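Let us begin with a simple case.
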Amino acid sequence: MKKAVHFGAGNIGRGFIGSLLYKSGYDIYFVDVFKELVDNINKFKSYNIFILGNDIKKEVVDGVKAIHIDDEENLLKAIADADVITTSVGVNNLYGIGEKLAYYLERRFEKNDLPLDIMACENALFATNILRDSIYNNSSENLKAYLDEKVGFPNTAVDRIVPNVDIEKETPIDVAVEEFFEWDIEKDAVKGDFDIKGCELVDDLEPYIERKLFLLNGSHATTAYLGYLKGYKYIHEAILDDTIDKIVRNLQLEASFGLNNKHKIGMDKLKEYSDKVIERFKNPHLKDEVVRVGRDPVRKLSNGDRLVSPAKLSFETGLMPENILYGIAAGFAFDYKDDPKAMEIQESISTLGIEETVKKVTGLNETILIDKIVKKYKELKSGKIK
């Protein structure tokens, strides 16, 4: 049986990546830092996935195992003959995972030099490159030669909403997911012989990554931030607000303008994708809280992420991204007290002021864009939502 080692046994790991690996016949080893989660996976050895579409369906994933990240002996055994290694740990954790993987891959290389594919399945542009660079930076010259020849590092674009919805669980590790999913993998970077059901191997991944990051993640965050400011609890409630719906659709249009100019995808295809995204947001079964979707605005408002990237691309193409900038401004007004990163931004605004905070967080240099974000932020703080 083929073996997969997946770092990150959270909802996305179990409900999305783990699900497709299981359906593809892989023996799955989850790796996580949380002892209770690891213990529960090893205790129950299976979990249910509740698929939230027009009705609710249940799938079972069984025969799974888990390893604590500090369990060197068992992690070494799992990685020694793995066919695929995947992650869903958050992009900021990839550096540490890469450092650990370099150690275990050195040990693996001592025993065999079989092909292996390593993929970071994160909400970030070219996340596998980040993981790969961390591994190489901690590798010996001999290991680097093995990595060059036998280890593939395909970038991926992953898309599935996995909310923290309150479901009636049969085990504590059951998870709920939306019905829709997409997993695109960079074909030319694959070194091993794997077949993951439901994924698509593509020649050029960048259009898929940017389409998803801008049109789904960017509009998702904007819906969350505006929904929070208007007092909505759930995404499906916020997107039914006519004002929010209009801003989000116009944001998608602005982002599509830049995407089409860069990748020649076709405005009709981008409109079809955008409309499907809005319909996904309207799914009442997801009960996806705006504070979950909006969490960590420091990352979501950063240069290269879901809002600043499409804003810059559209601006460079000749279109002023008024609605994307509105989403960015709403992110700076997101002052949810239980979100440490949101509070970090609020403290910066109190200390440095909104203009300097915008510059620091977004990395923007374009004065006209910064000025517009500041103006829109002040409008939002005064209670005005267009």
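The second case is a distinct protein. As before, the sequence precedes its structure tokens.
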Amino acid sequence: MDIRERFGKTVSSIRRKQNLSQEKLAEISKLDRTYIGGVERGERNLSLLNIERLSNALQMEISEVFRLMEGDTHNED
């Protein structure tokens, strides 16, 4: 699984735990819902700005999102 897929899986997991729909996350982050779907499927190569927008919308520090992503990677081993 590449970094885009791992990041997308992490964003999806956080979003679901916060009971947010893709539509609501898109609204909060000011990104399109189809873009959010692409991120979650690992189809998007995100800019730093969009990583920040998603992290802010999820009320998390960027570093925490990446820490969770790396934790998921270690759990797959």
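Residues 3-76 form a domain with the 434 Repressor (Amino-terminal Domain) fold (CATH 1.10.260.40). The chain has one domain: 3-76.
Keep these points in mind for the review questions at the end of the chapter.
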